Amino acid sequence: ILNVEQSPQSLHVQEGDSTNFTCSFPSSNFYALHWYRWETAKSPEALFVMTLNGDEKKKGRISATLNTKEGYSYLYIKGSQPEDSATYLCAPYSGGGADGLTFGKGTHLIIQP
Amino acid sequence: DAGVTQSPTHLIKTRGQQVTLRCSPKSGHDTVSWYQQALGQGPQFIFQYYEEEERQRGNFPDRFSGHQFPNYSSELNVNALLLGDSALYLCASSLPPDNSPLHFGNGTRLTVT
């Protein structure tokens, strides 16, 4: 079972500000890293699946970077909007035969108007 | 294009009883995974089904079993329910390969009294 840590646990950000948070995971046996956004009363929604060291992905105002050698990924949100309020989950995957995705506890982001 | 649907939405059971949760995958998806999310935790992998076979399994006791039907829909069965089984049960569908993003349903909230 992988040890996945996300920090901070929760974050309050003013509307319009940019923010970022971290996902740390074991660097050995790395295959892929998933990011999901989970809004209240909805289902988790996939943001990114990242596989290569140094990978950088972007979706609108949200972007993510990946460092597989040191075992971390950053998620950035530029110009936060109220609709960005959600829990952001990361989940590394070790590949075939592994026990599925191992999710962190998430970072709970609240955007204050 | 129907997404992942789960039923029922909520369920209350008594200790010792058995429960069956159902999931229909997103159209075109052939792989179904089940996750348990306890309060304050990230989703935990239970098992994954592909081609009607259990392909991967997480660290859950044999009381948790599943099935996948020829139309790719799936069931999660839990026998001899314990209070600790109270959680949100999420179903997710995907396509191969292993680094494909998961598409989640809204979950079934199970309460064991």
Secondary structure layout plus pairing:
The complex is a heterodimer of chains A (113) and B (113).
Chain A: E1 5-7, E2 10-14, E3 19-24, E4 32-38, E5 45-50, E6 56-59, E7 62-67, E8 72-77, E9 86-93, E10 107-112
Chain B: E1 5-7, E2 10-13, E3 19-24, E4 31-37, E5 44-50, E6 53-57, E7 64-68, E8 74-78, E9 87-94, E10 103-104, E11 108-112
Parallel strand pairs in B: 2-11
Antiparallel strand pairs in B: 1-3, 3-8, 4-5, 4-9, 5-6, 7-8, 9-10, 9-11
Averaging pLDDT over every residue of chain A, what do you get?
93
What would the principal axes of the Cα set say about the shape of chain A?
globular
Which structural class matches the secondary elements of chain A? mainly beta
| Radius of gyration of CA atoms of chain A, rounded to a whole number | 14 Å
Helix proportion range of chain A: under 10%
Strand order of the largest sheet of chain A: 1-3-8-7-6
Low-confidence stretches of chain A: none
Q: What's the total number of strands of chain A?
A: 10
What average pLDDT do the residues of chain B reach?
95
The greatest interface between two protein chains, and residues involved on each side, is: A-B, 28 and 28 residues
Radius of gyration of chain B: 13 Å
What does this structure look like?
- The complex is a heterodimer of chains A (113) and B (113).
- Chain A has strands at residues 5-7, 10-14, 19-24, 32-38, 45-50, 56-59, 62-67, 72-77, 86-93, 107-112.
- By secondary structure, chain A is mainly beta.
- Chain A has a 5-stranded antiparallel sheet with strand order 1-3-8-7-6, with no helix packed on it.
- Chain A starts with a strand and ends with a strand.
- The relative contact order of chain A is 0.34.
- Chain B has strands at residues 5-7, 10-13, 19-24, 31-37, 44-50, 53-57, 64-68, 74-78, 87-94, 103-104, 108-112.
- In chain B, strands 2, 4, 5, 6, 9, 10 and 11 form a 7-stranded mixed sheet that branches.
- In chain B, strand 4 and strand 5 (44-50) form a beta hairpin.
- Chain B is globular and about 40 Å long.
- In chain B, 38% of the residues are buried.
- The mean pLDDT of chain B is 95.
- The chains are: A mainly beta (113), B mainly beta (113).
- Chains A and B meet through strand 4, strand 5 and strand 9 of A and strand 5 and strand 10 of B.
